[in-house]
Structure formats: C-alpha cells, structure tokens
Amino acid sequence: MPPPADIVKVAIEWPGAFPKLMEIDQKKPLSAIIKEVCEGWSLGSHETYALQIADATNFYITEKNRNDIKNGSILRLTTSPYQTALQLHERIQSSSMDAKLESLKDLANASRDITFAQEFINLDGISLLTQMVESGTERYQKLQKIMKPCFGDLLSFTLTAFVELMDHGIVSWDTFSVAFIKKIASFVNKTAMDTAVLQRSLAILESMVLNSQDLYHKVAQEITIGQLIPHLQGTDQDIQTYTIAVINALFLKAPEEKRQFDENIVDILNCPLTEMAHILAQKQLRSIILTSVIRSPTPINDEMAHQLYVMQVLNFNLCEDRMMTKMDPQDQAQRDIIFELRRIAFDVESEPNNGGSIEKRKSMYTRDYKKLGFINHVNPAVDFTQIPPGMMALDNMLYFAKHHQDAYIRIVLENSSREDKHECPFGRSSIELTKMLCEILKVGELPSENCHDFHPMFFTHEHSFEEFFCICIQLLNKTWKEMRATSEDFNKVMQVVREQIMRALSVKPNSLDQFKSRLQNLSYTEILKIRQSERMNQEDFQSRPILELREKIQPEIMELIKQQRLNRLCEGTCFRKISSRRRQDKFWYCRLSPNHKVLHYGDLEESPQGEVPHDSLQDKLPVADIKAVITGKDCPHMKEKGALKQNKEVLELAFSVLYESDEYLNFIAPDKHEYCVWTDGLNALLGKEMTSDYTKTDMDTLLSMEMKLRLLDLENIQIPEAPPPIPKEPSNYDFVYDCN
C-alpha cells in the first residue's frame, strides 16, 4: 500500500552526528517538526533552529516552500534565519580582518535566500553594509598595499551581499545617499580595481538607474564616457557586458529632452552620460565597441549579445521622434529640404522672385517634382504627412542626395527619362522604403527581454540607418528594372525588396559592404529561383491517390515527432529563473526519466555544459500526477506583479505544469524552439494533441520528404486520379505453367 501523500521520507543532517531518516507529516506545523528533530538530538531551544535544503543553495524551509520537499530529499538542521542574521550582523563588525572577511563571505552566500535576507534587512543590515562601503573603505585602503588580495575580497563580498539582498526587492533603491552613490561610482572610475569589485559596482549602478528615476540623475552626474571606455577596451567580456549594460540603462531612463542629438557637445571624454544620443552617435565609442567587443577573438556570449541588441534598438529608437513627426506644409525650413532635393537632382539654383511669371515657375516646379517621384506634384510636402515614416523619410532622402550624390542623380534622371508607366518614383519609393525599414528594425519598440538579435554592420558607421537606407533604395531601383515593373506593380516590387533585405540580414553581415554584396547575389531572378525551390520542397500534391497516401503516412510521422519530443525531454533543458537583474539569474534543470514516468528537476549554480545527470536533480514529479499544461498569460508566474507580465515575448515562452492539489511547476523556456519541444512533449505524455507551430513545420517537412522518397520511381509519370480498371477474367487459363 503506497504511503499517504502528506508523508515525505527525508534524511536530516546535523554537524557531528549521523544523519537521521525521518518521515515528515506535511500536515504538521513546521515548528513541531523542528522540535521533534531537535529532541532526537537532545537539543534545547528548538525555536532557534530551522531546516535547510542540503545542497549548494542552502535555502531555508518555510511554511511557504515546504511543499517543495520531495521523497528522498536531504535536509540540514541549522540555526534559524534570525539567529544566523544576528550572528553575521555582529561578526561583520569584528575588528579582526580575517573574521570580518570570513563573515562577509558567509553573508554573501546566505543573502541569496529570501528568508534570511528578510531577517538581515530587519536588523538594518542594508544600512550597515552601505556604511561599511562609505566609511570603511578609507581604512581598508591604508592596508591595501600590504593586504591587497584581502582588501579586494573584503570589498567584493560586501558588494556581493548588498547586491543579493537588494535583488529580493524588499528595500527601495531610493533610500540610498549621494555619498554611497559617489563611493560606488569611484570604484568604476578607478583604472586599477579588483575585477569582482568592478563587476558588482557596475551591477549596482545599473540597478540604481533602472529602479529609480531620482538615482538616474545622481548616477549620471558621477559617470562619464571617458571613465567607462577603458573597461570596454579590456579583455574581460563580463566587465565589458556590465559596462554596456550601464550605458544602456542610462540611455533607457534618460528624459526625452536628454536623448536628442546635441551638435554643440565637443568634448566627448568629459561629457556626462545624460547626453546619451550624442555618445551613441560618436565614432569613438562605436569604434571601440566594434573593435574590442564585436571583433574580439573571444566569442560573444548570450548576455553580451543581448546588451548589444539593446544598444542597437535604443540607437534606432532615436529615429522615433522624426518617424512620428508629420511635415508642416507651411514650414519654410522643411520646404527648403525639398527645394534642396530638386536643386541637387537637376543642378538648378533658386530663381529670383522676378525670374518669370509665377505660373511659369509653378509649372516648372510641378514638372521637377513629378520627375522626383512625389505623389503630390503641386505640393510634395503633403506626401510626408503620413506617419510613420513622417519626416524620417525626408531626412533619409536628403542624406542620400548629399552623401551619395552621383547615385541619387542617376536614379532620378534614369527614371525621369523612362516612359511614365515604367518609371520608379523616387519620392514614393523612399517614403514606403523608410516605413518598411522601420518595421524590419522595429523602430520605436522597447527592447525584448530575451532577444540576442544584433547586427554587427550597424556598429560600423555613425549613420548606420541612413547608410542602410541608401543601399536599400538603390536595391529597390535595381529590382524595379529587373522586374520591368510599372506603377501598378509597386506593391509587388516592395514585397520582393523586403524579401531580399530579410534574406540578406539573416546571414548577419559584418559590414555594410558585405550586406551590399549579399544583395547583389539576391537579384530578382535569384529570388524567383529560391521561391520556386521552396515551393517544390513544400509542394502539396492534390490528386486523390497522393492525398490517400499522405493520410496513411501521417500517423507514422506524428509518432516519429512524438518520439523526438520525448527524447528531447529525456535529454533535458536548462531553464532560467528571471529576476530583476538578468545577469545574476539563477538556473534550474529539468529532464524526463528514460521510462517516461518521472520529471527530474533541481536548481543549478550556473548554466551547465551538456546534460545534467538524474542523480544530481533531487526533486521529482511523477508524470501520473500531472493534470494539465497551462501556457501564456494563464500561468501563475505570469499573473504575479512585475515587469515580466508586460513583456509579450516572455509571455509567449511561459508554461506551467499543474499537478496534485493545485500545485504548479513553472517554466520560462530559453527560446521558442524549446517552448514548443516541451509543451509538445508534455502534451504527448498526457495523451493530448501536439499543437505547436514546430509540430506543424516538422510534419510538413517530414511528410514532404517521405512522399518524395516513395514517389521517386514515379518521376515524370502521370498519376491517374482513379485506379486503373481491373481487366476481365481470361476465357481460359491455358497459359498458366504448372511447375509440377
């Protein structure tokens, strides 16, 4: 007879004694269980003790998380969170340097547990740590020459404990003094600083900026680009990542007026980071990121890729204001830009007011504006009242006319000399192309939490978007000619151009020249070949025999996909517990047992290299206990308060397993592929249909391949709609040869 569901068999350790095997009744109060354990070892004052998970995390068992205890778990009897916090609070104030160092190390490890953190914070522990950072470092610096390693470790553990405590979100960031901010900034501004201290300091500054608008202003006054550049020029990718994260955080929280490009700032090395738009546009910072980070021999890890993606998005979002600004047809300065486009294209000077009649000049302007490809020939300013792309399209056209003048003049004159129905309208094309590029690069959207999709080529030029436009407008004109398009084909041409751009971007060219070369190989003829090849690979035969064969094969293919999903679950996946600071996230691993009956899972200190063995994953969930798989916004961890619920991409990667009495195991998949694999696999275990996009794609691909293999011998043979008729029986069987 199986044991009751509320009884859990565990082992409990106590230093200096043999572990005890016990049965814990989950219906009992936790204090009663601890009292029973203490009495077994003849320990008094059971209220000063607590139970911990005996693994690398050392998390305390509380009434809230006690249901996480599974059969076979190993627990440890230890001092209560309050007693531990009280002891560490006293020990970190010790006059002995060795005792202080050891206690700060213990504090840094213990602070990861929210139960301990709450007790330590209640003792005003955060204030104690900030005081140690503000005032204690001067005393330690006097000893730095003779105790340099000790000094670095001392400060590192202090800052690590502070970061871990703040990461629980118990204390508001707005409570910290200017002196503390200045001290943290001073660690960043020093050229020779312990790596661990520098990492923690950068992480603290980033969190301050992201969590408090008031602290943003204070931090921005203390940090300059000249002091951050040396950290980017080093070889430590973690330091580089933290540095770029601080730059991104400052830019993200900068007020709108501070994000505008300021031509009057000259001294970049000493300008404050509040002028973020100018700094991101500067060649020095861009070139350092390009040479020291992107083109570094060290492979770019996921976190660095994410920060580069964030910087790319924030840089492009500088265009949002112009993209959403309509042109004012009455604004003379804006109209002068259109006059400049006309002047460059046709090499004409502005005629004096008395140079001919007004009607003659209007007629001349109308003729030229028609050649320039505007929709409204009389008043082309009206063309730029559509948002998006608004004034951004006009800015791109002027940049192209000034910086690629020969190409601009050639395109305008070529099209103005064609027949009306075959001309590629430069004005209309530029407006629609700018709108398309904004959609492709998602201008105006906030950075995604999990995206790593940055393009190295956008870090190779100060005006990367404008240069991107210049390449693409020439591509559009070339494709127009290759398609021999007319004005009625405008939308078709734009669709082909979009496909050309997307295919060229998919290979992540390292420079704009490589992007241009890639486009040269993606001519309209090549696009047609690719489309035809893809159409053949995905061909859906419609004849009745083929459809019958497909229906017969489909269950076999579905079973093959099911087995692949289950095999992937048996291999397991590392999932991330997303916190407010991404780089200090915790990891956990989950995998299915080979017999498909149990899910093994457990916390990890870091992302694993390869599979994690079953015996190192202490928690188990029988598949038979699983009631349902929940996805998206219906998941419990997506209903909690926090920024995650606002992130559409995280919502799309979230799923939960419902088991027992309304208990949940919550997941956030690392990417869409893993999300589909796990939701499919779990549904397959429950005997439900696999409905993910990847299942459909895999089914189409495998079914198409299997069909082609089976029909290989029938190539170029017409398959009839109906089976051939069965011939009549012969009048006699004299032709049969009797072997006997």
Task: Describe what you observe in this structure.
By secondary structure, the protein is α+β, with helices and mostly antiparallel strands. The protein folds into 4 domains: 7-79, Ubiquitin-like (UB roll) (Roll), CATH 3.10.20.90; 96-115 and 127-322, Leucine-rich Repeat Variant; 326-349 and 358-535, no CATH class; 585-696, Pleckstrin-homology domain (PH domain)/Phosphotyrosine-binding domain (PTB) (PH-domain like). The protein has 29 helices and 11 strands. The protein has a 4-stranded mixed beta sheet with strand order 2-1-4-3. Helix 7 (178-189) crosses helix 9 (213-222). The longest helix has 28 residues, at 544-571. It is flat. Residues 143-148, 260-271, 350-354 and 641-646 have low confidence and may be disordered.
CATH architecture of the largest domain: Alpha Horseshoe
CA-CA gap between termini: 68 Å
From the spread of the alpha carbons, the general shape counts as flat
What about the largest sheet? 4 strands, mixed
Uncertain segments: 143-148, 260-271, 350-354, 641-646
Total beta strands = 11
Percent of residues in helices = 40-55%
GO molecular function, one term: SH3 domain binding
Protein name: Engulfment and cell motility 1
Subcellular location: Cytoplasm; Membrane
Organism: Xiphophorus maculatus (Southern platyfish)
Question: What's the short story on this structure?
Answer:
This protein has 740 residues and is α+β, with helices and mostly antiparallel strands. The chain has helices spanning 30-40, 81-91, 97-110, 114-122, 125-142, 148-166, 178-189, 195-211, 213-222, 225-233, 237-253, 276-281, 283-294, 302-316, 320-323, 332-346, 358-371, 391-403, 405-416, 426-440, 464-483, 490-506, 512-520, 524-537, 544-571, 636-639, 648-653, 672-685, 693-710; strands at residues 7-13, 20-25, 49-53, 74-79, 573-577, 586-592, 598-604, 619-622, 626-631, 654-659, 663-668.
